[in-house]
Amino acid sequence: MPESSHIYECTVMHQRLRPKRHGFSYRVFYLWLDLDDIASLDADLALFSRNRFNLFSFNDRDHLGGEHSDVKAGVLQVLSQREVDISRIASIKMLAFPRVLGYVFNPVTFFYAYAADGSPVSALAQVTNTFGEQKFYLMPEAGADGFRLVTPKLFYVSPFSALDLQFDFHLRLPGEKLHITVNDADAEGPVLVTSLTGTRRSLTDAVLLACAVKYPLLTLRVIFLIHWHALLLWIKRVPWFSKSANRELQQDVLRPHHSIASAKS
Question: What ranges do the domains of the chain cover?
Fold first, then answer.
């Protein structure tokens, strides 16, 4: 059984600071997959499959705009297009929700690229919205405290977040513990603070079964909570932004929704 792929049991925390406060936290689990392990995991695990139905599964077409039949090759292509020296990369790890009984929604997926000596080379965040659109954010080279990027968002993530905000990513390097923050900010400071913290566990059938019990219908619960909290924000009269508005601020979008399909990307 490969030892470079794991599970992280996590707490997700969201805290909206302006214009009205609204916060929540909930427990989830993520797969930490070495993309070179997936075929052997498919063969060795009864509860996990690649590109076919199971209790938990991974589908290559869920990522990278559905344009690649092999996620690792696709990530390498994306990194190369963004002028990352992929000759340095020996392995790529992915942090994402699995499909659960065939259904998945990943608000954000992280790809970490490593050299042969285990040192980090690059990281890529793939943000997905409920319209099925995706957008990549490439991290600069890692520093002593992991990867950090502050960049214009230019992507429609939530109807309650303006498109001219900035994303502030901080990806500490995963180990026994996981700690990621992705904040929204404007000129006055943070607007929305989000953190993902977790503890690593082995990726085995026994642990997968335990996660199925502890986090039933995980991905359906995630999409339900997104819409539930959107309703609560609407009730609180938080300002709302239409998907079709500010099309020029929705840039470099994969699988663009028809509301912006004719806009320049």
Answer: 6-249
Please report, to the nearest 10 degrees, the dihedral formed by the alpha carbons of residues 69, 217, 24, 135 taken in order.
10
The 56-58 sheet, strands edge to edge: 48-50, 56-58, 99-100
For the chain, the C-alpha Rg in angstroms (whole number) is 18
CA–CA gap between residue 32 and residue 37 (Å, rounded):
11
> Is 0.90 surpassed by the pTM of this model?
yes
- Which residue pairs, CB below 8 angstroms and at least 24 apart, start in 37-42? 37/2, 37/4, 37/5, 40/1, 40/2, 41/2, 41/5, 41/203
For residue 79, give the amino acid letter: L
Is residue 150 within 8 Å of residue 168, measured between CB atoms? yes
Q: How do residues 208-251 score in pLDDT, each as one tens digit?
A: 999 999 999 999 999 999 999 999 999 999 999 999 988 999 99
Spell out the residues 6+ positions from residue 70 whose beta carbon is closer than 8 angstroms to its own: 60
User: Measured in whole angstroms, how far is the alpha carbon of residue 256 from the centre of its chain?
Assistant: 18
Q: How far apart are CA 89 and CA 140, in angstroms?
A: 15
Low pLDDT (below 70) residues in the chain: 1-3, 262-265
**What does the pLDDT read at residue 264?**
47
Q: Are 186 and 194 in contact (CB under 8 A)?
A: no
What does the alpha-carbon distance between residue 203 and residue 7 come to, in Å, rounded to a whole number? Answer: 6
**139, 112 Cβ separation under 8 angstroms:** no
